[in-house]
C-alpha cells in the first residue's frame, strides 16, 4: 500500500494515498507561459483568454446594481484594465491592495466601466517574476481545497518510494502492441509524470486536447478497468440461478386472455422485443435487459406481457417507477387492463397511510398480490415478496445507482434470482450502449404504434405570447386539451422567468370560462394526483405544469403543448415533454417559446428539436453536451465514470479495449484482477448496477 495522504482537505476529494493523488489527473491546463500587454489584449476581443500584469491603482466595493469588488490595474505602458468580482472574500481584498503587482488571467470583455475581466485568476508577483516554461495543470476540487494544495500533494506523492512499484506496468507489452497496432504507448509511470508535469519539449497542444500518448495510456487503463468489471459482472450473472419459465404461453392463462382482448396489433418492433424477453425468461440465469423506445412507442405493453407470462407460471411481478405520477399512471392503466382478467394488483408508494401500507405489504408477503406497482417504496424495509420472479424498473437512469443495487440485493434470493427488465424512454446512444452495457441485453422499439401522427414542433419568440394565448381557443373549441409548461414555480430575480403560478393566474384572466389546472412539485401527492386525474378525465382543459409531467402522463386528447423559456431546458427534457402530446390520432403541435437572449448551444438545441423527433439523434447530441455520467444516472453514485475519454471521439479505442479485456480474462485472469483493484477498488460494484 502506498503512503497515506494525511491532509483532511485531501480526504474530501477522496485522495487517501499517494496512489490516489497521482491518479487524480488534471481536468484541463492553463497556458501561463505567455504574457501580453493590456493594450494587446484589449485590442483582441472575441472570447480569447489572456494573461496580463499590472500594479493595482484602485480597489473599491460597489453596491449597485449589487455588491461587487472592483479592482483597477495599470501596466508599464500606462494601459488600464478593470477586474470585477461578484463573490469575494476579505482575504482577496487584502491580496489585491493598492500598490501590489498582479498577474491576472481571464477573458476580456467590454464592461460598464471599460475593458474588464470578471473573476480572473490572480497571482501577486514581483514585476520581473519569471513565467512558467510549460503548461499549468488544473485539477477538480471542492470548496476549501486550493489548486496549490493539490499540486503540493501530487508532487509529494511522486516522491513516495513505494509508488513506482504500485504503478508498474501490469499489461504485457506484447499484448498492448498487438492490440493497439501503430500506437506509441509510454509506461504508466512516464504517462502520469508527463500529465502532471508536462515538459517544455512535450507536444503541449496534444496534451491539452487529450490526444497525447500519455493520455492514451491512462484512457486505455481506465477503460480497460471498466470493461473488465462489466465482463466479470456478466460472468457472475450467468453463473447465478433464476426461475426458468417455459417459452410457451400457458393455455387459458392471463397472458393468452390479455392478447385476445388487446384492441390493437403489436408493432414488429414490439413483437421482436417481446420475443427477446421471452427467450431470456426461459434461461436458467437472471435476465438483465434494457427495453428502450421513444415516448409513446408502447414499452408498457411489452413489459405487461412479460409480467403476465411470469404470473401464469406462479410467480409475482413488480414494476418500480421513479415518481408517484409515473407509478400511478402504470397502476391505473394496468388496473383497467388486468383486473377484469382476475389479476390481483397491489399499489405501494411512500405517501400511502400507515394502514394502507401494511395492507399492501401483507398482500405482497403472502403472495396474494400477483403484480405489485410502486415507487422506491418497494425496496424499503418491511417489504418482503413471497415469490418474486420478474421486476421492471422504469426510467432506470432516474434511480440512484445505490437504489438500483439495493433493488438487486432486495429481490435476489439466495437460491433463485429475479429476472430484471429496465425501461427507458431516453434512447441510449450507441457509444454509451457499447461502453456501459456489456452486461445488458438491449431491445429497441423504434416504431410508433399505428394511428399515431408525428408531432409538429414550432419555435416561437416570447414576444408573440399573447397571439399564442388567443390561438389556444381554436384548439379548445375542437374539444382538445392543452399543456402549458413552465420551468420555475416562483419568480427568480436572477432568471426573471415566467412561473407556473403566475402563468396560471394570467391564463385564467385571459381565458374566462376555460377550466385551467395547475400542478407542480411542491403540491402534496394527493393534490397533484387529483389535478392529473381531472385533466385525464377531460374536466381540466388547460394544464399549467412544471416538469413533473415530464414522464408517465398519458392523455390522448391533449394535442397542444407550449413550453415557456424552452431555452432553459435540456435536450432530454424537451424531448420527453413533447412526447406528452401526439398520443392520440389528432395532429399534435409542440410550441417552444424562447426568450430574446439565446446562447449558441440553446439555438442549436431548439433547432435540433424542431428538425427531428428521432430520440437517438437527440440522445447523441445530449451525450456530446452533458457526457455519460448524467445520462446514465451514474453521477448519483458520487463516482465519476470514464473521466479521461471522450466516448464519441474515441469509439475506436473502446472497441480495441473491449478486445483486450476479453483476452486478459481468458489468458491473464490474475493481471485482470490486479488491474481492477488498482483503478476501481470497491467502485466496481457501481459499474455492475
From TrEMBL:
Source organism of this protein record: Polynucleobacter cosmopolitanus
Reactions that this protein is recorded to catalyse: Couples ATP hydrolysis with the unwinding of duplex DNA by translocating in the 3'-5' direction; ATP + H2O = ADP + phosphate + H(+)
Helicase C-terminal domain span: 455-624
Gene3D superfamilies hit by this protein: P-loop containing nucleotide triphosphate hydrolases
GO biological-process terms attached to the record: DNA recombination; DNA repair
Domain of life: Bacteria
Single GO MF annotation: ATP hydrolysis activity
Limits of the Helicase ATP-binding domain: 280-445
Residues in the signal sequence: none
Name of the protein in question: ATP-dependent DNA helicase RecG
One Pfam family hit: RecG_wedge
Family as reported in the entry's similarity comment: Belongs to the helicase family. RecG subfamily.
Enzyme category, top tier: isomerase
Function: Plays a critical role in recombination and DNA repair. Helps process Holliday junction intermediates to mature products by catalyzing branch migration. Has replication fork regression activity, unwinds stalled or blocked replication forks to make a HJ that can be resolved. Has a DNA unwinding activity characteristic of a DNA helicase with 3'-5' polarity.
Keywords assigned: ATP-binding, DNA damage, DNA recombination, DNA repair, DNA-binding, Helicase, Hydrolase, Isomerase, Nucleotide-binding
EC number(s) recorded for this UniProt protein: 5.6.2.4
Amino acid at each position: 500500500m502506498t503512503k497515506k495522504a494525511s491532509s483532511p482537505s485531501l480526504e474530501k476529494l477522496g485522495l487517501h494515498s499517494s496512489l490516489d493523488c497521482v491518479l487524480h489527473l488534471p481536468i484541463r491546463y492553463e497556458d501561463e507561459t505567455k504574457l501580453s500587454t493590456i493594450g494587446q489584449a484589449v485590442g483582441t476581443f472575441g472570447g480569447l483568454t489572456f494573461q496580463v500584469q499590472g500594479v493595482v491603482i484602485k480597489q473599491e466595493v460597489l453596491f449597485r446594481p449589487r455588491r461587487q469588488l472592483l479592482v483597477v490595474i495599470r501596466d508599464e505602458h500606462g494601459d488600464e484594465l478593470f477586474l470585477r468580482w461578484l463573490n469575494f472574500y476579505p482575504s482577496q481584498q487584502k491580496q489585491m491592495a493598492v500598490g501590489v503587482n498582479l498577474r491576472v488571467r481571464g477573458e476580456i470583455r467590454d464592461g460598464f466601466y471599460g475593458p474588464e475581466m470578471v473573476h480572473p485568476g490572480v497571482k501577486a508577483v514581483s514585476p520581473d517574476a519569471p513565467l512558467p516554461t510549460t503548461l499549468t495543470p488544473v485539477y477538480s476540487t471542492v470548496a476549501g481545497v486550493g489548486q496549490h494544495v493539490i499540486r503540493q500533494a501530487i508532487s509529494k506523492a511522486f516522491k513516495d518510494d513505494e509508488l513506482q512499484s504500485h504503478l508498474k506496468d501490469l499489461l504485457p507489452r506484447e499484448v498492448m502492441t498487438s492490440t493497439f497496432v501503430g500506437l506509441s504507448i509510454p509506461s504508466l509511470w512516464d504517462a502520469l509524470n508527463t500529465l502532471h508535469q508536462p515538459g517544455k519539449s512535450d507536444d503541449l497542444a496534444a496534451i491539452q486536447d487529450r490526444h497525447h500518448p500519455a493520455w492514451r495510456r491512462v484512457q486505455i487503463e481506465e477503460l480497460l478497468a471498466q470493461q473488465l468489471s462489466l465482463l466479470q459482472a456478466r460472468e457472475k450473472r450467468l453463473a447465478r440461478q433464476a426461475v426458468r419459465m417455459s417459452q410457451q404461453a400457458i393455455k387459458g392463462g392471463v397472458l393468452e386472455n390479455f392478447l385476445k382482448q388487446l384492441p390493437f396489433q403489436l408493432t414488429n418492433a414490439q413483437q421482436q422485443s417481446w420475443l427477446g424477453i421471452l427467450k431470456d425468461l426461459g434461461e436458467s440465469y437472471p435476465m438483465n435487459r434494457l427495453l428502450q423506445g421513444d415516448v409513446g412507442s408502447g414499452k408498457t405493453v411489452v413489459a405487461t406481457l412479460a409480467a403476465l407470462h411470469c404470473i401464469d407460471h406462479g410467480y409475482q411481478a413488480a414494476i418500480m417507477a421513479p415518481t408517484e405520477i409515473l407509478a400511478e399512471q402504470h397502476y391505473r392503466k394496468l388496473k383497467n387492463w388486468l383486473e377484469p382478467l382476475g389479476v390481483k394488483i397491489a399499489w405501494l408508494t411512500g405517501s400511502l397511510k400507515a394502514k394502507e401500507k401494511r395492507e399492501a405489504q401483507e398482500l405482497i408477503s403472502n403472495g396474494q398480490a400477483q403484480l405489485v406497482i410502486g415507487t422506491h417504496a418497494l425496496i424499503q424495509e418491511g417489504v418482503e415478496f413471497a415469490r418474486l420472479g420478474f421486476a421492471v424498473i422504469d426510467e432506470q437512469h432516474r434511480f440512484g445507482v445505490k437504489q438500483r443495487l439495493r433493488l438487486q440485493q432486495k429481490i435476489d434470493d439466495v437460491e433463485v434470482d429475479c429476472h430484471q427488465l429496465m425501461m427507458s424512454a431516453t434512447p441510449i446512444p450507441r457509444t454509451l450502449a457499447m461502453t456501459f452495457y456489456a452486461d445488458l441485453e438491449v431491445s429497441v422499439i423504434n416504431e410508433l404504434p399505428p394511428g399515431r401522427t408525428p408531432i409538429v414542433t414550432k419555435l416561437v419568440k416570447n414576444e408573440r405570447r399573447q397571439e399564442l394565448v388567443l390561438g389556444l381557443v381554436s384548439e379548445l373549441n375542437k374539444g382538445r386539451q392543452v399543456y402549458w409548461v413552465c420551468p420555475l414555480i416562483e419568480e427568480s430575480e436572477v432568471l426573471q422567468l415566467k412561473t407556473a403560478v403566475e402563468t396560471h393566474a394570467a391564463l385564467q384572466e385571459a381565458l374566462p370560462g376555460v377550466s385551467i389546472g395547475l400542478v407542480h412539485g411542491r403540491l402534496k401527492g394527493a393534490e397533484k394526483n387529483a389535478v392529473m386525474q381531472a385533466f385525464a378525465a377531460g374536466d381540466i382543459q388547460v394544464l399549467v405544469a412544471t416538469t413533473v409531467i415530464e414522464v408517465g402522463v398519458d392523455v390522448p386528447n391533449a394535442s397542444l403543448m407550449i413550453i415557456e423559456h424552452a431555452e432553459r431546458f435540456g435536450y432530454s427534457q424537451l424531448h420527453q415533454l413533447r412526447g406528452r402530446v401526439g398520443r392520440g390520432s389528432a395532429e399534435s403541435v409542440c410550441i417552444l417559446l424562447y426568450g430574446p437572449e439565446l446562447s449558441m448551444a440553446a439555438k442549436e438545441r431548439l433547432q435540433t428539436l424542431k428538425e427531428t423527433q428521432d430520440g437517438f439523434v437527440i440522445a447523441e447530441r445530449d451525450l456530446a453536451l452533458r457526457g455519460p455520467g448524467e445520462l446514465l444516472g451514474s453521477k448519483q453514485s458520487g463516482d465519476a465514470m470514464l473521466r479521461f475519454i471522450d466516448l464519441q471521439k474515441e469509439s475506436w479505442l473502446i472497441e480495441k479495449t473491449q478486445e483486450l479485456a476479453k483476452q486478459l480474462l481468458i489468458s491473464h485472469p490474475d493481471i485482470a484482477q490486479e488491474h481492477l483493484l488498482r483503478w476501481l477498488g470497491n467502485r466496481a460494484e457501481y459499474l455492475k448496477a
